Give the backbone structure.
Amino acid sequence: MASKKEVEKIKKAISKDDEVEKEPQLTDLPGIGPAVAAKLEAAGIYDMMSLAVMSPAVLGDAAGVGAAVARKAIQAARNMLDLGFTDGVEYAKKRANVSYITTGSKNFDELLGGKGVESRSITEAFGAYGSGKTQVGSTLAVNVQLPVDKGGANGKCVFIDTEGTFRPGRIKQIAEGIGANPEKVLKNIFVARAFNSDHQVLLLERVGEMIKEGEPIKLLIIDSLTAHFRAEYAGRGMLADRQQKLNRYMHDMMKLAETHNIAVYVTNQVMANPAQMFGDPTTAIGGHIVGHASTYRIYLRRGKKGSRVAKLIDSPNLPDNETIFFITNAGVVDE
Ligand code: GTP
Ligand code: MG
């Protein structure tokens, strides 16, 4: 890893004129808000490079954040330097390209930072049966097709269905609800049933090929991400294998999202966690592997009076991190 001085030298060498590009800020990193950035600065960490070379434990202590957030921030800083190192202008352009897809609920969009699910990111929704994971996915599959000024990405959707829960009729109903042509909307969703985890891996490769062939795919949905892995790698003896395979899969997914500037929405089941004594005793499948690789992690549950509650996990820079939405015939809405 280059020292700070060396980085400055290289940066100077590659800048064609005296104009200085705006450097990426610590607050550009996931999980680093102004409050955490201030703590880091107090600890003498001012720039990306200092952060990129830290260990998660040290960063966690310095910034007062959890290990998961620390690891994510370090990884992001490293990725960012990789890009900024050779060409900072190119990096800025890439950021400008990020697109968003509205969930249909302003509240829910706010929870995700303002505009809904983000391209170049993985958004994971986990929760119990009937908590709304598939319904959120179905609404996104419709909304991605909206023009940009209506909260869409003007693109098509790939829906990898591992549980056979994709319902064309439901898609049409949601499309009608927002005044879109149901048949057209359905035609812009490529659906594949994944029969096992190997098939699921293969289908991911196929998505990359489709995009290269010119399909304007802007959203990839995997519903459910973990069900096959969980069923095939049952029992303690297989846990390590399962996590390794899941890990690789998450990385492939992130690479796909970054290479093609697409948003990824995945669903995940929960299991009872008897170790937790207070609150909701449920834990997401795939544990840390899935959690670390997901950029946004949302816990869904049923709320009062038919509402749903969405909670952003692992984001200490967002104080108000829980919100309410509803599932209606027209999909996800505020009320
Ligand atoms: P699992 O896949 O079983 O783990 O659950 P999930 O989290 O995917 O749940 P899903 O998204 O399928 O949510 C199911 C719930 O959505 C139902 O219990 C209904 O409350 C609601 N829902 C599903 N379809 C409709 C519909 O057409 N109209 C309305 N108003 N609500 C619906
Ligand atoms: Mg479902």
